[in-house]
Design goal:
Blueprint (H helix, E strand, L loop, with lengths): L11 E4 L6 H6 L6 E5 L1 H17 L4 E5 L6 H10 L5 E6 L1 H14 L3 E5 L11 E5 L5 E6 L6 E5 H4 L4 H23 L12 H26 L5 H21 L3 H9 L10 H16 L3 H14 L15 H11 L15 H15 L1
Helix pairs in contact: 3-4, 6-7, 6-8, 6-10, 7-8, 9-10, 9-12, 10-11, 10-13, 12-13
Length: about 350
């Protein structure tokens, strides 16, 4: 019997106002200098909170501006800038977070992740998704450890556009269905072992939380207010999905996402919005029960997740475009091969066409 493995960050903290305590969490890991990697918008919007935290404790820090793409050249640039630091802190969205984790890995430093949106499950994982400089998917960088600390200030997250929280729901939506597929084939999850019952329970809870609180959270965000539903969805998008996908396993949904990145049409569509269409495609591939497919479509449509090519920005879904996606989704090493049957590009092509029709 193969081993079961579940991995997670050393510490997960979520609550309003926690960004003001960032330096306190750094002091557990370092004392020399913190290198804070942040997107331009986060430097603009949250610099005051960050600097106040470090200056209050008279702790040295530097803030480096993220260049916009999680690619090898950007990682190398930031490693050079962080040569005097003893801890990396990533503040921002998914690509900033993944870049900070990669920089910390190569520089052999601890890392704190402070997501300011809940649009992906990247914060908790020991994984960086590397892209080429043109935004197309390149590869997964598997890291030896999860972040030392994940700090989610929900007062900041609640002020972000509702679309970003919804995109996180699209990413989280895949967690249960991909873990279920991985379990059915005894596939090894990214954590390095079979899916544990704990990981599967988190994946199921993630899906149940989305169905129960997703629409309420979206409406709260659109109204500019926070709520228990927002707190629950932030936790589902960030923690439940993060642990669930990594220790539960991946299937077709994320491979379809990776395939979609080859189309420039989709580059303005968020990761989770592409993943939600990948979930629908996976369910068609599995020939899942129609009640389950309908439940997923109804959820996606209620919160505004993509269920059609048009919603992905593909206004002219020619056979050539769709086959390019299908071929990329079924490339060797893709997690779509964890499905309990052989998956070919032709099958993915057909499933995407049917998914688009069902989601219309």
């Amino acid at each position: 019997m193969s081993k079961r493995v579940i991995i997670s960050p050393m510490k997960y903290v979520q609550g309003p106002g926690e960004m003001e305590n960032l330096a306190d969490y750094y002091k557990v890991l370092g004392s020399k200098k913190a290198c804070i990697i942040a997107s331009p918008s986060n430097i603009r919007n949250n610099k005051e909170k960050i600097t106040a935290s470090f200056e209050k404790g008279k702790i040295p820090y530097e803030i480096e501006k993220f260049g916009g793409e999680c690619c090898k050249s950007e990682i190398d640039r930031l490693i050079a800038l962080a040569k005097d630091a003893d801890c990396i802190i990533g503040v921002g969205g998914g690509k900033v977070i993944d870049t900070a984790k990669a920089v910390a890995y190569y520089a052999k430093l601890p890392v704190i992740i402070a997501p300011t949106i809940a649009s992906t499950d990247a914060p908790c994982s020991a994984l960086t998704v590397l892209y080429k400089e043109d935004g197309t998917f390149e590869e997964y960088l598997l890291l030896p450890a999860n972040p030392n600390c994940v700090l989610v200030d929900t007062a900041i997250v609640a002020k972000a556009p509702a679309r970003l929280l919804v995109a996180g729901m699209g990413d989280a939506l895949a967690t249960y269905f991909e873990a279920r597929a991985a379990v059915s084939t005894n596939s090894i999850a990214m954590a390095g072992g079979l899916t544990s019952i704990s990981a599967m329970a988190l994946a199921e809870l993630c899906y149940e939380t989305l169905l129960a609180d997703g629409l309420k959270a979206k409406l709260s965000m659109e109204a500019g207010v926070s709520s228990r539903a927002v707190e629950n969805i932030v936790e589902a998008n960030t923690f439940l999905s993060g642990i669930g996908f990594e220790s539960g396993g991946l299937g077709a949904a994320h491979s379809v996402h990776n395939g979609l990145t080859v189309l420039p049409d989709t580059h303005d569509v968020y990761h989770g919005e592409k993943v939600s269409f990948g979930v629908l495609t996976q369910l068609v591939l599995e020939n899942a029960d129609m009640d389950e497919i309908t439940e997923v479509i109804d959820f996606c449509q209620s919160v505004g997740l993509a269920t059609t090519f048009a919603q992905l920005g593909i206004k002219d879904p020619t056979p050539e475009k769709l086959m390019a996606v299908a071929k990329a989704a079924t490339a060797p090493g893709e997690t779509i091969h964890n499905m309990p049957f052989e998956v070919t590009a032709d099958l993915v092509y057909s499933a995407m066409v049917v998914a688009d029709k069902l989601g219309a």
